[in-house]
Amino acid sequence: MFVDPSIALQLVAFAILLGGIYGLVALGLTMIFGVMDVINFAHGALMVAGMYTVWWLTNEGGLNPFLTIPIAIVVLFVLGLAIHHVTIAPIIEAPQENQLIVTFGVLLILVSAIEIAFSADPQSLDIDLGSIGVAGIYLPEGQLYALVFAVVAVVASWGFLQYTQLGRAIRGTADNRDAAQYVGINVPRIDYLTFGLGAALAGLAGAVIPLFQQINPHLGDAYLINAFVIVVLGGLGSFPGALLGGMIIGFVHVFGQFFLPGSGYQIAIFLIFILVLLLKPEGLLGGETHE
Amino acid sequence: MSETQYGRLDRARLRYRRFRQQWYSTPIVLTAIFGALLVLPLTLNLYAFGFSLGTWISVHMLIITLVWATTGQAWNMMSGYTGQFSFGHAAFFGLGAYGTILLLNVVGLNPWLGMLVGAVAAGLYGLVIGVLCFRYDLRGHYFALATLAFAELIRYTFNTVPQLGGASGFYKPLPRTYADGFGLAAFQFEGVLPYYYVILAFLIVVTVVSLVIKQSRLGLYLFAIRENENAAAAVGIPTYRYKLLGTTVSAFFTAWAGAFWAMYFDTIRPETVYDILVNVEVLLPAIVGGIGTVIGPIVGAFIVIPLSEVARILVDLSGFDRIIYGVLLIGIVLYSPKGAVSWPGRFFEVLERNGLYENAIDDGAETDE
């Protein structure tokens, strides 16, 4: 198959931009998955909450959209703490599927509440960011900013986990919850922090999306499913893995959309997912699987 | 309260406990439920004291309830009995629906045969999923995610391939184009009442199969796998084979409900029968009613569906019924993980805790739990 090199280059640019977003979406999910061993189905709904926070503050509150992004992060952190307090904390020791069902309940409530409050119609920000042309490649500015946010978020989260006392406590809890408890880490409090941070990261991922895309209450679903793929692909709880997985899925998505008919790219993504689940469930960059 | 009342409560509690200990208690309760369901739609329009059931429930609502009761019962046979939590039953539901309507549209196959083809296809797909997941020993989260991925795979495949209907799906053809007009042979009826009895028949078949499996040696094996798979394997139960069996049977019967769905509504599209929400609707009745019980999925469906339908009528907001689903999911898992079937027992427990049983008759039935 012959492709014009300029088209190929353009596709690569799109794939990197989208891959960055995907990586950002997967960050919060992989964190909660890795530390608490909870599949957070509400992750996509938390993203949607982030999207609508930015959209509402910008269009109704008249704020600069870039100012509203930090606000969305804080709002989602608090929302995450509340959700954890009500739904996850009481049953953290229960069988895994209980937590899965509960987070799905949170997804239904959040998305429906947002739909009732803001209607199901697509919305967009009242700003026009335009695009940059570099060497004949077209780069939408909104997506470029989103990528910058993604990179900053990854570096900041990684630094936090790697070099702070709290970060070490979180990593310790991820490695072994019981052992963490024995050495004096307050595991329930770490769970609160982790879920709050995971929700805040979901909020950030959602907050950058209105910069380049129309939003609707169900937009989280598509991102959520691919985020699961990325988390497993990159390795449970691995931040570099999330970024690598995001890039891989970004490339499959963009190139698949170009070369395959219909939603063929999504079929390819699921085939990759199933293969990874079966052959290497610990992921590309993951260590041993936790029991 | 007088002393005689305590005595009556004591006797009621003991009678209930003794009854629930008998092997025949579940069949008797089920017979009563099905008997009531047989006459229920006929009583909807009866007026008594200026009040009729028909103002609150419709036959359509009952049909939807029975569809999800059927899927809940089928899901239960795999996930409730063997503990292999499936989050991808929409694949089987959709395959049943598509098997029926696609073969009817493309080759004019009678929907009853199409339903069987769809059910066999769903069973085979379940077998493939099972072989892959169990061979590679996927457990817990990974298994749930894998079943979801297999369901989504099917959804996008049907969405993409035009020969499979694509995104717009299929219309249900008029009955005279492939049969002698409306009737049982065409799987299409004038009015909703016959549909009700068809889905009730499906539910009865699935329930009887479920009950027979549970009360047989096979059920014992399946539950042993759920409680402790390694221990079950250690005492010689071929766990792999039995997990496959549970998955296949469950997929087969879930497809029946899908086939009914396809013949009851006018169109089917990937978004209606393969949607992510379908994965939840399938299992919700079993969770709410009581996982691993035979009565649970039926009771659960009669809690979930009418509640959300009534809410939809009372509160005119799109999406409000999904909030009800969400609250139910969270509430049940947090406060009553054993489901609605445990409520009568709990009712007596609460009375006991409040000291209402001062004159409790002790006959040794206390040990049952």
Protein model, in words:
The complex is a heterodimer of chains A (291) and B (369). By secondary structure, chain A is mainly alpha-helical. In chain A, 73% of the residues lie in helices and 3% in strands. Chain A is built from eleven helices and two strands; from the N terminus they run H-H-H-H-E-E-H-H-H-H-H-H-H. In chain A, strands 1-2 form a two-stranded antiparallel ribbon. In chain A, a hairpin with a 2-residue loop joins strand 1 and strand 2 (137-140). The mean pLDDT of chain A is 86. Mean pLDDT of chain B is 86; it is low at 360-369. Chain B has helices at 3-21, 25-43, 59-82, 90-106, 111-135, 140-160, 193-215, 217-227, 229-234, 239-264, 270-273, 276-289, 296-314, 320-335, 343-353; strands spanning 170-171, 267-268. The chains are: A mainly alpha (291), B mainly alpha (369). The interface between A and B is large, with 45 and 42 residues. Chain A: This is Branched-chain amino acid ABC transporter permease.
Provide key terms for this protein.
heterodimer; A: 291 residues; 3% strand; B: 369 residues; 1% strand; globular
H/E element string of chain A?
HHHHEEHHHHHHH
Please list the strands of the largest sheet of chain B in the order they lie side by side: 1-2
The helix fraction of chain B, in percent, is 55-70%
Q: How many runs of DSSP E, i.e. beta strands of chain A? A: 2
Strand order, largest beta sheet of chain A:
1-2
Topology:
The complex is a heterodimer of chains A (291) and B (369).
Chain A: H1 5-36, H2 43-59, H3 65-88, H4 96-118, E1 131-134, E2 137-140, H5 141-163, H6 165-175, H7 177-182, H8 187-208, H9 219-234, H10 239-259, H11 264-279
Antiparallel strand pairs in A: 1-2
Chain B: H1 3-21, H2 25-43, H3 59-82, H4 90-106, H5 111-135, H6 140-160, E1 170-171, H7 193-215, H8 217-227, H9 229-234, H10 239-264, E2 267-268, H11 270-273, H12 276-289, H13 296-314, H14 320-335, H15 343-353
Helix pairs in contact in B: 2-7, 3-7, 3-10, 3-12, 3-13, 4-5, 4-6, 4-10, 5-10, 7-8, 7-10, 8-10, 12-13, 13-14
GO biological process, one term (chain A): amino acid transport
Pfam family, one (chain A): BPD_transp_2
Main location (chain A): membrane
